[in-house]
Amino acid sequence: MKKKRIITVRTLLSGVLAMLGFAGCANSADTPCEYGMPTVGYRVTGEVKDESGKPLPGIQVIVKDDHLLGKEGAKPYQRYEGDTIYTDSKGAFQSAMIVSSYLKEQEVIFNDVDGKENGGEFESVKMSVDDLDSKRIKKGDGWYSGAYELKAKVQLKKK
User: Fold this and answer.
1) Are 114 and 101 a contacting pair, CB within 8 Å?
2) CA nearest 95: which of 146, 132, 56, 123?
3) pTM of the model
4) CB–CB of 98/65 below 8 Å?
5) Which one of 78, 95, 99, 132 is least enclosed by Cβ atoms within 10 Å?
């Protein structure tokens, strides 16, 4: 009888503790869940021009992040590898808001994928997150370090 009571109490306590752990993550949608892991949000924006200062449309911009945890508009628990966007007619671009474990090793790659269209063929450029201008756009709290806008101004050279 006593052994059965101990098992029941342990089972109940385990269930309560598990529910408390999940309830601790029931916060607002724009603040990531925290399980003891630091997170930071960031968005990469900027413009791409040629050597003469003319905007380059149709340039592929790849945000690579090996520590990616989430992305605006994506499904929960989905594997992320970054964001791929293209410059508009003014050479401007803006990535989705990305959530990562930290800002340090991210890269932004600029590729001319349309060949001779839109001003000729241009060499690819790879930039580190350290090469971008950083501006905090949202203050952090606890393990969440806040959100940042990373700005890139890129000049591509003709091949």
Assistant:
1) no
2) 132
3) 0.71
4) yes
5) 78
pLDDT at 28: 46
What is the token pair recorded at 52?
Answer: 């003469």
Closest-CA residue to 140 (of 49, 41, 15): 41
CA proximity to 83, closest of 62, 57, 112, 97: 62
Q: Which residue has the higher pLDDT, 14 or 139?
A: 139
Token representation of residue 96: 């989705």
Could you report the per-residue pLDDT of 46-77, keeping only the tens digit for each? Answer: 999 999 999 999 999 999 887 666 666 555 54
Provide the CB-side half-sphere exposure for 141 (13 A, CA). Answer: 7
Q: Report pLDDT for 89.
A: 94
Q: Is 74 exposed, middle or buried (0-12, 13-18, 19+ CB in 10 A)?
A: middle
pLDDT for residue 26: 47
Burial code of 96-111, b = ≥16 C-beta within 10 A, e = fewer? Answer: bbbbbbebeebebebb
